[in-house]
User: Which sequence fits this backbone?
């Protein structure tokens, strides 16, 4: 018997106390615990006997502890029974300080005149958690964008969320208890399946709106099970895909009837989709395209590199529109290739990123573009040819004048004392004439009337040999990159002129990069096919050496590119350039049977591309220079020159050189003088009125077949070739203007050369 007259050992009371499902605690008016069952000890974390005599506030959370004695006093003042679950937010505090949500019922007991409060405490942590989960699930169902419909296996609707109301047009009150057949799902049993239906099943379906319109949907039917696997019916989630399916059909229609071939390619390079135009363009059926590697549609020459390009694009799939100027091509089923423009974009799918390529065959346009380009190039070539003829004629006449100036200067210098103002002035005149002669020589190169020493040249070796010189020409602010793709074929050209080409281009590039930049010189052998060769005027299909000179300079607008190869055209200041650099490049390359192309845009730099025909001839060892022979030994020389001053100067030089000289102003006079005269050598201009020098030589040789002729001209090795007078031991050539030593040496050498029998 306790102090309050409650006998805890009484078997009936003890059994009630111990087998109660909740924690039971007895508290007196002073707040002292006078009894507690095992459930109370377990719930609060105490041993059974430890709760007796403790204050009830020990089991109250800290936040409520200070106010609890007042609540307890009020209860004892009016001890009414309070049932569990009264909606109050209550909590208990365990021995370790942790708290738990609780439901608490109160009742009072009078024992021997003393009143105690019996407190039944229930831990509702799990119930609260379950309620929270249920509330969250309900919120998800209510806020879901998909229609979520609960129903029994017989199809009767048991729940209907707002999205279902929005999708079908029915309110919850209109459908609860009615069959899902209302939505025209077809036979309910067919939709729900047999009783052993798998937990979840997804299918496409067509449903019916309240207004009778059809809805294309994807529905997922699931069984709803309780924790004990009890059957709570079915739940169907419905998503409206009508708009998506319409968009898909529109997309498929656009895809099918697009004017370009459309290919979708997965990350592994496999074709995932192809339209009708792709079938027609590449010559494959759709079933042959889908599922195979894209590489079978690219030219064989780039097949090995294409996979890397594809991976690089998919790593950063930015849209690339058509018409970017890239030279692309496709390969048909029969192996033939076609020029193409290709746009790229990406598409995110459930299977990953798909690269979408739109391929356009531009064969006709490319052919038209090539024709227009060739027409422009032909017009430019004709214009340059006309300019070249004019420049060559001017250079020829100018060389005659320079020859007179230089030769007379030499002759006058012989008469002047070693010291004196007159000698200094004459030296300045000579230097100026020599500079003029150099400019004239560039004009002759442009007009392709300059004497060239054609030999087998290795362009790779030439570029490497020039690398140090180019570094010096460019200066420290311009970075030079030289790249050679071996093996490089040889070409037939004048080595010195090719060196001049590269130096001219390097100097132009340096001037286009006043703040510094980069110049790239690349050399490679390329095999031009017929189409590629036809796009470059004057080239034939076959192996060529391509030299590419590319700078990062200011670039050129189209109107400057149009005139870039014209002699004396320059955008530099009057004192900064002659305008002969690119003109000289043009003349040298075209004279070697090659082609020059210039590509540039303002702010994008300039690229000059040279193509020279490759040769399989072996290089020849250079002959050792022959010593300059002595001058004349009294031989009789006939000088034929229509320009009086040049004729007089040449005659005067030869006489001073030890030759006996007779002169003629034209071919007719020369033929008359030669009759019966003992002539050892004829020195003749090539271009003369009435009869050319080679024709005169032929007429003179009728009587004297072994007569030797030294031709002189301000250009015209081309004319010599046309006259077919290149006879070893019988003819030689000297270029105007020449020095006194050069003319005497040329005459002596030819006279001493044994003519073939």
Assistant:
């Amino acid at each position: 018997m306790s102090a309050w007259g409650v006998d805890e050992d009484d078997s009936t009371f003890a059994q009630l106390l111990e087998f109660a499902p909740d924690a039971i605690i007895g508290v007196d008016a002073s707040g002292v615990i006078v009894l507690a069952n095992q459930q109370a000890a377990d719930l609060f974390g105490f041993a059974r006997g430890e709760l007796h005599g403790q204050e009830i506030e020990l089991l109250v959370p800290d936040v409520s502890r200070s106010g609890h004695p007042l609540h307890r006093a009020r209860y004892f003042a009016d001890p009414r029974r309070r049932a569990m679950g009264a909606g109050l937010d209550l909590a208990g505090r365990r021995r370790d300080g942790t708290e738990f949500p609780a439901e608490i019922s109160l009742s009072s007991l009078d024992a021997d005149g003393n009143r105690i409060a019996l407190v039944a405490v229930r831990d509702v942590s799990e119930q609260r958690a379950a309620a929270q989960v249920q509330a969250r699930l309900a919120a998800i169902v209510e806020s879901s964008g998909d229609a979520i419909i609960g129903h029994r296996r017989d199809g009767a609707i048991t729940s209907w969320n707002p999205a279902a109301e929005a999708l079908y047009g029915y309110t919850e009150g209109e459908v609860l208890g009615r069959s899902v057949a209302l939505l025209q799902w077809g036979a309910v049993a067919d939709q729900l399946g047999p009783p052993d239906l798998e937990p979840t099943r997804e299918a496409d379906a067509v449903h019916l709106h309240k207004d009778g319109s059809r809805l294309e949907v994807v529905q997922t039917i699931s069984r709803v099970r309780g924790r004990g696997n009890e059957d709570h019916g079915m739940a169907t989630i419905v998503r409206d895909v009508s708009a998506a399916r319409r968009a898909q059909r529109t997309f498929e229609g656009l895809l099918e009837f697009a004017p370009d071939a459309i290919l979708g390619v997965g990350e592994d390079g496999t074709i995932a989709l192809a339209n009708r135009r792709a079938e027609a363009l590449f010559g494959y059926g759709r079933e042959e395209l889908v599922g195979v590697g894209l590489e079978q549609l690219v030219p064989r020459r780039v097949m090995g590199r294409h996979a890397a390009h594809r991976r690089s694009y998919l790593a950063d799939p930015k849209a690339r529109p058509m018409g970017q100027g890239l030279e692309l091509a496709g390969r048909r089923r029969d192996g033939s290739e076609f020029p193409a423009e290709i746009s790229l974009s990406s598409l995110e799918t459930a299977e990953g990123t798909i690269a979408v390529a739109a391929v356009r065959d531009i064969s006709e346009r490319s052919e038209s573009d090539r024709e227009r380009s060739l027409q422009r190039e032909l017009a430019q070539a004709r214009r340059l040819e006309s300019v070249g003829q004019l420049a060559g004629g001017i250079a020829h006449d100018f060389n005659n004048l320079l020859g007179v100036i230089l030769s007379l200067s030499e002759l006058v210098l012989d008469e002047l004392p070693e010291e004196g103002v007159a000698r200094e002035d004459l030296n300045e005149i000579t230097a100026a004439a020599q500079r003029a002669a150099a400019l004239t020589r560039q004009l002759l190169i442009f007009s392709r009337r300059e004497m060239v020493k054609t030999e087998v040249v290795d362009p790779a070796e030439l570029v490497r040999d020039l690398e140090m010189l180019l570094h010096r020409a460019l200066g420290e602010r311009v970075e030079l990159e030289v790249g050679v793709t071996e093996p490089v074929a040889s070409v037939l050209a004048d080595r010195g002129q090719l060196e001049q080409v590269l130096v001219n281009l390097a100097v132009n590039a340096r001037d286009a990069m006043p703040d510094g930049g980069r110049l790239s010189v690349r050399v490679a052998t390329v095999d031009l096919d017929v189409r590629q060769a036809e796009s470059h005027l004057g080239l034939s299909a076959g192996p060529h050496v391509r030299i590419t000179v590319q700078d990062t300079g200011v670039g050129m607008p189209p109107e400057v590119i149009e005139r870039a190869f014209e002699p004396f055209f320059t955008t530099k200041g009057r004192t900064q350039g002659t305008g002969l650099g690119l003109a000289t490049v043009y003349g040298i390359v075209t004279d070697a049977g090659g082609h020059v192309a210039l590509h540039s845009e303002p702010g994008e730099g300039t690229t000059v591309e040279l193509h020279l025909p490759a040769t399989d001839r072996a290089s020849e060892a250079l002959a050792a220079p022959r010593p300059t022979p002595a001058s004349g030994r009294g031989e009789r020389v006939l000088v034929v020159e229509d320009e009086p001053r040049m004729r007089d100067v040449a005659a005067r030089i030869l006489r001073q050189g030890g030759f006996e000289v007779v002169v003629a102003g034209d071919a007719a006079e020369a033929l008359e003088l030669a009759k019966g005269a003992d002539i050892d050598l004829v020195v003749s201009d090539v271009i003369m009125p009435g009869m050319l020098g080679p024709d005169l030589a032929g007429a003179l040789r009728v009587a004297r077949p072994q007569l030797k002729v030294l031709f002189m001209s301000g250009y015209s090795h081309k004319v010599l070739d046309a006259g077919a007078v290149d006879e070893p031991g019988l003819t030689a050539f000297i270029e105007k203007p020449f020095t006194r030593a050069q003319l005497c040496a040329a005459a002596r050498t030819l006279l001493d050369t044994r003519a073939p029998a």
